[in-house]
Design brief:
The complex is a heterodimer of chains A (about 600) and B (about 300). Chain A is α+β, with helices and mostly antiparallel strands. Chain A is about 25% helix and about 20% strand. Chain B has 2 domains: about 1-65, no CATH class; about 85-300, MetI-like (MetI-like fold, Orthogonal Bundle), CATH 1.10.3720. Classes of the chains: A alpha+beta (about 600), B mainly alpha (about 300).
Chain lengths: ~600, ~300
């Protein structure tokens, strides 16, 4: 679809000739995601209709206890220090952000009175500022009113290097101004298309100024409120045992009518994923369990008892295979996989293309992941608006053989292909995890038939994903030819996600292997597109750029996406959850309820 | 005692410092968190200093009674341990009492009537009991009593009711972990009690006691069992560390919020201060139980005295 036609359609929606919904479904049919379509409308000045709430209860409380099982329990309750999603989830029971992300990647106001938009001027046309109007009458759990000062304080707290917060990336390069008691203005250094990072979603939870103001910087660990959160959320803090238990009781002053439904919430930690699934699906001891890293076959068997169901929520996480662009066997200046080298065989596009043909993604989906890992051709899968429609994947050993034959990689007496003394022998590493080892076996078997010899290696996860400079087995060092792991996409905007393959992020000794680009891709076109997308304010053009970047990654190919991994949880039948792939599982806890 | 604790701490610290992985690796795969953030956190916790400096700092703080704080939760370690200790002591304590309640009578009766039907059955069961590891019996119990019969919950949680409901709730959720640990321990102790009593019951002084016309009951309880218990006490005291070890697995299966599950979590997260502290507590417990055994000897056998 041409840009002009698209603009025509948007105009139709503006004038009421075309319904919002029709527009969105039209776009979805074209391969854009609903959220992108929504964002296009928002950007073009079409007001966003409030999503119809599915919330049924007509009074606050009375729902008894909500018992949820987090097999990795929250270890701390200050969102700015969250080591992982488990800690964000624990904090999210008590703290709220200005807005959260719904399953379609749209913003839903929590502590904001409304979502900034172009037509009321709260979103600057030059993309350099955004004004948030705050909800009035919101009180912290201790009765203190919530104001713009709290919002400003969170910005100061998070960006202070001495505090060492994990959220600092969202706050360090913005300025926040107080307009009045209930209005704040976020000012960006340069035009910023993705303006909803600070104060939104997982990194946006707001902590109270009056309880934290004496504890920023080096003293941040001493704040008593780190362990006894005082937030604005639907549940008030009751009890916390790190790694074991987080308990909250109903906030009868909550700033939304009839919410919450439950009288208390208990988040129990510890154990393992399978027994957590059992406690929900088989015995019903718990109402909901998070992050079911369990084989789909087992989930299906547990579901058969009829007590609960698996909830599958699309997100952007993707399991992919990287093909090293540098030579892992030649040491240059004390480092292997140096940027000064080239991979002896992966530098040949034919070999990379053949490798992509040898990964049987469908078999991986069918035999290993089931509903919890869907075969994909794309690195960037969601939101749907960013998903490429032209990419395809194929498993074809004959075609791979032909590609290699044509490129001059002839089979030797040992059946392994070689050219100019370079053999197609690869070391393929991943973390120790049963599904990944099965995946490796599938790839190895196919490669054998194409005259490629694969040596499989698995590294303990704590080593593989560590930043230990002294250890040669970490994924950023990438002292292997191929490696496989899942990378997470935590925001509906792909900028951060796609940023992990720009040249300046390439991991090397110089940056202590802290660069996120472990594949060591250095593609001028990709870099240019990324730079352009960073400043492109037109969401349609910007989406096009990300789609193009994805195509560069998978068509060149530099990487081979295997399966994209939706969020998987389990819930008892009567429970109505509200889960989004772009925010925490508990982002909308206020809307959870149970049928009586 | 103090040198041994010091030695333990040096070895632990060095091994942990050299072990791969770091407490913030979860941040590594999250593209939204730049590596510099991780570096800043590591630096702020002093994790980039050389090992010996970290050890000396830890030791100096420990001597002042400061156990340090957990990297994962930023909570003081002593607070974490105090939160977890009651559950462990309750579960392990109860299971040991259960083990003794099973082992003593069964062992003694078996020994007084060797090769009777009762002895045969007891022997069979005790062999089955200590041959099956606790993680297996734990899962078996869950499968039978929670999933198939739906009688007992298998997630150990804090009970927030009051009065009899609190006791009832606690009883229901602790039966399985206590039985798993207690029966495993009781099974092997039964064998020791039996053989120990068998050794004593043939001695001349027992025959003398019988010849005096003492009732059989008095002979067994006053003369035989008291002597026979001496080696059993050593065994019970010295197997305490093993029990704590076994409890780690059981705590994990039933999600008992005890010190063992704290240790497992800490090991997974490479949370050095917590690992150090918990292993330290375990070492102290071992030494403490050795002391208890010594004191009990003196009471059981007046010939052994400490002057």
């Amino acid at each position: 679809m041409k840009e002009k036609e698209l603009r025509g359609l948007i105009e139709d929606v503006k004038q009421g000739k075309l319904s919002r919904r029709a527009f969105v479904s039209h776009m979805v049919a074209l391969g854009l995601t609903a959220p992108l379509a929504q964002q296009m409308l928002t950007y073009s000045g079409v007001a966003q209709a409030a999503a119809p709430s599915q919330y049924k209860p007509t009074k606050r409380g009375g729902g008894g206890a909500l018992k949820v099982l987090w097999w990795q329990g929250a270890t701390l309750l200050n969102p700015h220090f969250a080591n992982g999603t488990k800690d964000q989830e624990g904090s999210r029971i008590f703290y709220e952000a200005l807005a959260g992300w719904d399953p379609d990647g749209n913003l839903v106001p929590f502590l904001a009175a409304s979502i900034p938009s172009l037509e009321d001027g709260t979103l600057a046309r030059d993309g350099k500022s955004v004004t948030w109007k705050l909800k009035q009458g919101v009180k912290w759990h201790d009765g203190t009113p919530f104001t713009a000062d709290d919002v400003i304080f969170n910005w100061e707290y998070s960006r202070d290097p001495a505090t060492a917060t994990v959220t600092s990336e969202a706050y360090k390069s913005i300025q926040v101004e107080k307009i009045d008691n209930f209005t704040v203005k976020v000012v960006f250094e340069k035009p910023t298309p993705f303006w909803a990072d600070a104060f939104v979603g997982t990194r946006g939870m707001i902590i109270p100024k009056h309880l934290f103001k004496d504890y920023s910087g080096a003293k941040s660990r001493e704040a008593p409120t780190n362990l006894k959160p005082v937030g604005t959320g639907p549940y008030k803090f009751a009890e916390f045992k790190p790694g074991d238990l987080v308990r909250g009781v109903i906030n009868t002053d909550y700033h939304m009518e009839n919410r919450p439904y439950f009288d208390s919430i208990e988040m129990k930690g510890g154990g393992d994923a399978i027994s957590a699934a059992r406690a929900v699906l088989q015995t019903g001891e718990y109402d909901y369990a998070w992050n079911m890293q369990v084989e789909d076959e087992i989930l299906k068997r547990l579901e058969a008892t009829g007590k609960g169901v698996t909830t599958i929520t699309p997100g952007g996480n993707v399991e992919f295979i990287s093909m090293n662009q540098t030579d892992p066997y030649t040491e240059v200046d004390g480092e292997r996989s140096s940027l000064k080298t080239k991979h002896p065989s992966f530098s040949d596009p034919a070999v990379r293309k053949a490798m992509a043909l040898l990964v049987d993604r469908k078999a991986v989906e069918d035999n290993i992941y089931g509903r919890t890992g869907v075969a994909t051709a794309n690195f960037l899968n969601n939101p749907e608006r960013f998903r490429s429609k032209t990419t395809t994947y194929e498993f074809n050993i004959d075609k791979a053989n032909k590609l290699l034959d044509d490129a001059g990689w002839a089979r030797g007496s040992d059946g392994i292909r070689a050219k100019g003394g370079v053999k197609l022998k690869y070391l393929y590493q991943t973390s120790t995890n049963a599904p990944r080892q099965k995946n490796q076996a599938i790839v190895k078997a196919a490669c054998q038939k194409a005259g490629i010899d694969i040596e499989i290696k698995s590294v303990v996860a704590t080593v593989f994903f560590s930043s230990d400079v002294a250890n040669p087995d970490t994924f950023p060092k990438f002292y292997a030819d191929m490696q496989m792991y899942t990378t997470t996409m935590t925001q509906p905007d792909p900028e951060v996600f796609m940023g992990q393959f720009i040249s300046s992020e390439a991991a090397s000794k110089e940056n202590k292997w802290l660069g996120r680009n472990a594949v060591r891709i250095r593609d001028q076109e990709y870099d240019n597109l990324f730079r352009a997308a960073q400043g492109e304010l037109d969401p349609v053009k910007r989406a096009g750029m990300f789609i193009k970047m994805n195509e560069i990654l998978v068509n060149t190919p530099y990487i081979i996406p295997v399966v994209y991994r939706p969020r998987v949880g389990v819930a008892v039948n009567k429970l109505h959850t509200s889960i989004s792939g772009w925010d925490n599982d508990l982002w909308n806890l206020r809307d959870w309820y149970k049928d009586a | 005692m103090i040198p041994s604790l010091l030695g333990i701490s040096v070895i632990l610290f060095t091994v942990l410092a050299m072990a791969p992985g770091d407490p913030f690796d979860e941040l590594a795969t999250n593209p939204a968190i730049p590596p510099e953030v991780r570096q800043a956190i590591r630096a702020s916790f002093g994790m980039d200093d050389p090992i010996y400096i970290r050890y000396l700092r830890w030791l100096a703080a420990m001597l002042k009674g400061d156990w340090g704080f957990s990297f994962a939760s930023r909570v003081n370690v002593d607070v974490l341990i105090m939160q977890r200790l009651p559950a462990t002591l309750f579960v392990i304590g109860s299971s040991q009492i259960l083990a003794l309640l099973v082992a003593l009578p069964v062992g003694v009766i078996s020994a007084t009537r060797p090769y009777s039907i009762f002895d045969q059955i007891a022997t069979t069961f005790s062999f089955v009991g200590f041959s099956l590891p606790t993680f297996f019996t734990g899962l078996l119990f869950i499968l039978v009593f929670s999933i198939t019969l739906d009688w007992l919950p298998f997630v150990y949680r804090d009970i927030h009711e009051t009065g009899w409901r609190w006791y009832w709730g606690h009883l229901r959720q602790s039966i399985m972990p206590i039985c798993v640990l207690g029966l495993f321990q009781g099974a092997s102790w039964t064998r020791y009690v039996r053989s120990s009593v068998l050794d004593v019951i043939r001695l001349d002084y027992v025959t003398t006691a019988r010849a005096k016309g003492l009732p059989e009951r008095a002979v067994i309880t006053k003369h035989v069992v008291r002597t026979a218990l001496i080696p059993v006490v050593t065994l019970v005291a010295l197997s305490m560390p093993a029990v704590f070890g076994g409890a780690i697995v059981t705590e994990q299966i039933f999600r008992v919020p005890g010190i063992g599950s704290l240790l497992i979590d800490a090991i997974i997260k490479n949370d050095t201060p917590v690992i150090m502290a918990v292993t330290f507590v375990f070492s102290c417990l071992v030494i403490f139980f050795n002391l208890v055994a010594d004191i009990l000897y003196g009471w059981l056998d007046p010939r052994i005295s400490y002057r």
